[in-house]
Every structure is written in structure tokens, then in C-alpha cells.
Amino acid sequence: MSGYEARFQVWRGDREGGGLEDFTVEVNDGEVVLDVIHRLQATQVPDLAVRWNCKAGKCGSCSAEINGRPRLMCMTRMSVFARDETVTVTPLRAFPVVRDLVTDVGFNYTKARQVPAFVPPPGLGPGEYRMFQQDVDRPQEFRKCIECFLCQDTCHVVRDHEENKTVFAGPRFLMRIAELDMHPLDAAAETGLDRKRTAQDEHGLGYCNITKCCTEVCPEGIRITDNALIPLKERAVDRKYDPLVWLGSKIRRRSS
Amino acid sequence: MRPIVSTGTEPPAAHPRPARGGVRAPTRAAIAAGHLRTDRWWVPPATTAAGLFAFVVYSTWRAFADADYYAAPYVSPFYSPCLAQRCRPMHAGPNWDLFGGWWGISPAIIILVFPLGFRLTCYYYRKAYYRAFWAAPPACAVAEPHRTYTGEARFPLVLQNLHRYFFYAALLVAGVLTYDTVLAFRDPRYHWGHMGLGTVVFLVNIVLIWAYTLSCHSCRHIVGGRLKHFSQHPVRYRMWQFIGRLNARHMQLAWASLASVALADLYVYLLASGVFDDPRFF
């Protein structure tokens, strides 16, 4: 196999406007889309704005949409495309564009701040936490998240409805709530913070219609929908919609 | 404003921006197309729509037919348990005259409400029909056509939260269908210890029905998912792990059991309407 000239369409512009521009770029064996974007930057468009960092699928910086699908540019091999195929690269389309392939992902940091942090268990100091592996297996899956925000980008609740950004935290931060609610040492309930209830009431869990796009695009392979969002929905049902669970908890509280 | 650069590679003047919401909102990258996907993204929703539509047409016809649902020793899963007086007598079969003589239409309607509700509120089927019939979204990163969206936060879709109650009902129905499968080990004269091709059809169906029912997300939550400390509940932890392995195949089990229940009914229909006789093994 040898190098070839690939046809690319790259979105260029800013909030004032912009469009797709055509380029022909050299591609060599083993390269990924980010390599080609860098070559484009080095040889043809030195002011092309692109955010990147680790080139290893661990920093979550180079998120973009490649042929319309949210992906990491550094983890998308050129070998998955036919040589005569035009590869289209655009910025994430759920967030405000800054310039070219760079978007303002500040929405996600706003939502991150709205999720109450881990509540340390009373009476235990740093270094004294002890947990069983089977208790932390579930939250550990969610800790693989690299915060590339591809799940936030592809979620139609905010992608197709800008107005929902105020009421919906998005899959990444609902997963964070699930992680904390499943954490064996999180003492939020003892302080009066009911994460199950607030997931529904304050972070918009009810907006999720579990169409699994977040899971489909996750570069870490986290089963966001099956292991975080649906379990969190079931926990919210325990709190808000299941009279038998409500009755059981009342009886248990009275007898204890 | 774009800063002035001296490279001479600045993009051309701004394209006119369509004034709409979603991916075409004013602050987002100005791209007129609702999506730029080049793969055949429409195939999965189209296939799902065709499959579900075919089942709805078939099951509606059979549910309202009120005929050809019993061919000794087999009873159609659409009519079991049969809860009205008008049900055909089935020797030691699932007759339970709960509704009496006033029920004037097909008795299948009474019982089908429960498996139908179970599947309608199932987390997999929700994904399937939201995508296939409601286009919310039609596929990932493909713009949906709706102007507003509130998901399952409001009535009527907030009722999807009743899924666990339909799961409890589905357990009972699966129990009755298990009884029907045991009855299928008789011959047409009700002697025990026999098998025919229908027995195999019923066995496959009941295995798939149980696998689908137990792989349910609500079941996974009830058996152990709701716990915070698995280490204090080792038996429930084991059960949760088992259900979790089944749950990973929930979609495949949903389709396989949907097909098997329709095939089991079709088999009984063909026997009862005299198209062919049940091949007997012993």
C-alpha cells in the first residue's frame, strides 16, 4: 500500500458564517483524520483552527463530525474510508462555533458545576476509604469518560432543541449523577440530597428517550444508556412513580 | 469578527444562514443540511418500522379473529390464558372464566393488553419506535423534524415509567405460557408423554419469552440494580450479573421472542384451520 491523494471537505468559518471548502491532501498508510487535518494546516491552510492534544484518544480534545458522525479525529483511521470517497469534517454541531473546527463547549462545564459533588462519608478521613470491588465496578465504568462531549453533541435533546439546554444536563452529566448515586461511600442521602429525585426534577432525566446515540458514539465504549441512564431512570421511578416502593419505605421507616 | 490574517487562506464570504433552530441555530456552524451522514443510516429505522408494522398487522388480525386458536393439545399464545365464557373449552387448558358471558368480542383482547403494554414500555422498543415511527431522532446526528421536544418528562410519555408493573404482569403471562408448553407434551387425545413439531415450536417460544422477560431493564433493577452495596447481598449480586448478561442481548431477544410468539400462533392457526396435521415424533 502507498500514499494517495484524498479529497476532503472541511468546514471553515465562524459565528458570522462559513461553509465547506474542498481540499486535496496527501494521505499515508496508518494515518488518522487528525494527521490529515494537520497536514492540511501545515501545507495549505495555516490558519485552520483545530483543537487537539494527546493524539491517543485519551484527552477528548479533537472531537468533530466526520462524514456527519460525531467522532474523535485522532481515533478515526483513514483506512475506514474508500480512497475515492470525499471525507467531510465539520465542527460539533450541537455547540456554538468559535472558528473552523473549534466549538465553545462551555455548556458542558456549566452543567458539570450544577451536579453536586461527592459527599464524603462522615467519620472517615482521606486514606481511610475502604470499598469492595463489586461495589465500585459500576461507577468505575463511568470513570473511563474522557469528556470528549461526543455524547452531548449527538444527543438530539439539545442538538435539535437549543431551548432544552437550560433544563437538560445531557448524557455525560446524568451519567455523573448515576456514578455518584451508585458510589458505595457517597453520603449525599445523609445530608438530605436525593440524587435520584434531583436527576428527574433538576437535571432533566425525563427528557432522555433512551435512543442510545450517546452509547453509539462513545469512544470509550461506555454503555451509557444501559448502565447509567436506564438504571438512573429506574431509581427515579422508585422515588417518584412507584407506589409500592414508596409504601415499603414508609413501613420500613416506621418499624425501624 | 474573523481576525485579519496574512496567509491569504481565509474562508470566502459568509454563506447566507438559514434562520431556524437546532443544528441550524444562529450560533452553530452554518451548515444548511440537517445531516452530513454518507452511510445508509435510514436502513435500521426503516427495517424496524417494517418489522413492527408487520407484527402489528398480523397480531391485530389474529387478536380480533376469535377463531382457530386451539388445536389440541396446542393453544395460541395470543389467547392464553382465555378469560371469557366464550372461550373454546380446552381440556385441562388455560380456561379461566373470569369475565363471564358479557364479554362479547375476542377474548384475546383481554390478555394481550399486558404483553402489549410490556413491549410498548420496554426500554428497547421505546428506542426502536421513537426512531422508526416518531423520528426523534431518526438516526444519530440526523436532525429530527419536530419543532419542540419534551421527551418522557410529561403526559402521556411519563407513563412509560409504569414499565415495571407491566413486567410483573408479563411474568404471570409467561408462567401461563409455560403451563401451555407443558400441556404440549400430550397428544391430540390428551395422553401424556408425547411430542410433535408443535411441542418444539412451543418450547423455543417459551425459552425466548422467558429470556426476553428476564432480560428486561426493570427486572435488572429489581433483582439488584437498585442496591448501593452489592457486597452485602451476594445472592442478589449474582442474580444481577446473570440478568445483566441477558440484558446485553435485550434487543436480539426482543425481536426473537416477537417472531417466535407470532410463529407459535401461526402454527396453531394452520393446524386449527386444517392446512396440515401436526407431525408427531412419538
From TrEMBL, chain A:
Required co-factors: [2Fe-2S] cluster; [3Fe-4S] cluster; [4Fe-4S] cluster
For this record, the Gene Ontology CC terms, alphabetical, are: plasma membrane
Q: Could you say which protein family the record assigns here? A: Belongs to the succinate dehydrogenase/fumarate reductase iron-sulfur protein family.
Cite the 2Fe-2S ferredoxin-type domain residue spans from the record. Answer: 6-93
Q: What is this protein called?
A: Fumarate reductase iron-sulfur subunit
| One Pfam family named in its UniProt record | Fer4_8
Q: Which domain of life is it from?
A: Bacteria
Molecular function (GO) terms for this protein are: 2 iron, 2 sulfur cluster binding; 4 iron, 4 sulfur cluster binding; electron transfer activity; metal ion binding; oxidoreductase activity
Q: Kindly give the PANTHER family that the UniProt entry links to this protein.
A: SUCCINATE DEHYDROGENASE [UBIQUINONE] IRON-SULFUR SUBUNIT, MITOCHONDRIAL (PTHR11921:SF29), SUCCINATE DEHYDROGENASE IRON-SULFUR PROTEIN (PTHR11921)
From TrEMBL, chain B:
- Transmembrane feature ranges: 41-61, 102-125, 165-185, 191-212, 253-272
Q: Does the keyword Electron transport apply?
A: no
Keywords from the UniProt entry: Membrane, Transmembrane, Transmembrane helix
Instruction: Give start-end ranges for the coiled-coil region(s).
Output: none
Which portions of the sequence form the region Disordered? 1-24
Q: What is this protein called?
A: Integral membrane protein
